[in-house]
């Protein structure tokens, strides 16, 4: 599969590029970025570098691009006949995602969304514990998603995250992952956003950097969620799933699992580190889509838009 990688920032060069290189059925033919400085820095990778993708020289494109430019690129490349793996979130708002309505069913089917950690075996294990009654039902989920600490000495990082805040609170960006996981684990999209809140920890930020909400899911499941960026110290990033019979805890960075019930107390660690494991599985799904082993992207464009819709509902309720 001939692939171009568009977007040469941290996630593009640090995660997508190594995963694409590791896969034996992928041939990277071009690295793409509109920024000349990034193109110059990427030239050392030994792969041709350009400012745009030529649809005639590739079968697929991986978009490690900001969500405010991703929709236009997805539509352009999918309509050109390419397979597209697009980083989450798929847009900055449901309204901005309206451009995806230009795609036919066939074109939408060639789009896979980079909700990368959905592929992790830890999520599959959690799904089993919830569905087979190991934890009891319903479950109460507590999700604390805290990332991007504020370090005044790292000006580049602070400026980049503040610029991202200008396009939405952390729930829009981090919620893309979490709300996809919860819908996957709890049997569907949330039935309601019951309440929400937001806080700005210091003046001058373009949006609140802390957000939280309570959501109801099918089957009586409930989720209490929090998202936060840009504080000098961060709470532990983890998810807990509590039912009448047991408690499961997912470490938000390693995806190590702990299960505690009346009968046992055990920990599960999966081989390798979470990022390598999940990005490799994601590339395999992309190759399967190209080869026809998958009939549609997993996660799909519809999955990405659904997660965005939930995040937007929370953000709107928190105002």
Automatic annotation (TrEMBL):
Q: In this entry, which stretches build a coiled coil?
A: none
Signal peptide positions are: none
The GO molecular function terms of this record are:
nucleotide binding
Pfam families reported for this sequence: GFO_IDH_MocA (PF01408), GFO_IDH_MocA_C3 (PF22725)
Q: What is this protein called?
A: Putative dehydrogenase
Every copy of the GFO/IDH/MocA-like oxidoreductase domain together lies at 124-246
Show the InterPro entries listed in the entry.
Answer: Gfo/Idh/MocA-like_OxRdtase_N, Gfo/Idh/MocA_Oxidoreductases, GFO_IDH_MocA-like_dom, NAD(P)-bd_dom_sf
At the highest ranks, the source species' classification is:
Bacteria, Bacillati, Actinomycetota, Actinomycetes, Propionibacteriales
Every copy of the Gfo/Idh/MocA-like oxidoreductase N-terminal domain together lies at 1-114
Q: Which domain of life is it from?
A: Bacteria
């Amino acid at each position: 599969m001939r692939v171009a990688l568009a977007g040469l920032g941290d996630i593009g060069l640090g995660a997508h590029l190594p995963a694409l290189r590791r896969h034996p059925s992928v041939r990277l033919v071009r690295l793409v970025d509109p920024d000349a400085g990034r193109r110059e820095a990427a030239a050392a990778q030994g792969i041709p570098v350009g400012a745009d993708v030529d649809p005639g020289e590739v079968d697929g494109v991986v978009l490690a691009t900001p969500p405010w430019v991703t929709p236009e690129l997805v539509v352009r490349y999918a309509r050109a006949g390419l397979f597209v793996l697009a980083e989450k979130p798929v847009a900055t708002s449901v309204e901005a995602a309206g451009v995806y309505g230009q795609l036919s069913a066939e074109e939408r089917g060639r789009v896979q969304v980079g909700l990368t950690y959905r592929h992790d075996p830890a999520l599959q294990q959690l799904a089993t514990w919830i569905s087979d009654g190991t934890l009891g039902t319903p479950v109460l989920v507590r999700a604390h998603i805290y990332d991007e600490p504020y370090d005044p000495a790292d000006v580049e990082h602070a400026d980049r995250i503040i610029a991202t805040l200008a396009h939405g609170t952390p729930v829009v960006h981090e919620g893309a992952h979490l709300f996809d996981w919860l819908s996957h684990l709890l049997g569907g999209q949330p039935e309601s956003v019951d309440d929400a809140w937001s806080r700005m920890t210091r003046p001058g930020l373009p949006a609140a950097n802390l957000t939280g909400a309570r959501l109801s899911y099918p089957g009586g499941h409930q989720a209490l969620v929090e998202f936060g960026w840009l504080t000098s110290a961060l709470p532990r990033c983890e998810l807990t799933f509590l039912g009448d019979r047991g408690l499961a805890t997912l470490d938000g960075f390693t995806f190590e699992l702990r299960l505690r019930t009346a009968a046992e107390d055990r920990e599960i660690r999966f081989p390798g580190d979470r990022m390598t494991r999940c990005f490799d599985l994601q590339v395999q799904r992309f190759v399967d889509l190209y080869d026809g082993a998958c009939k549609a992207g997993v996660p799909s464009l519809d999955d990405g838009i659904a997660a965005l819709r939930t995040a937007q509902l929370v953000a709107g309720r928190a105002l």
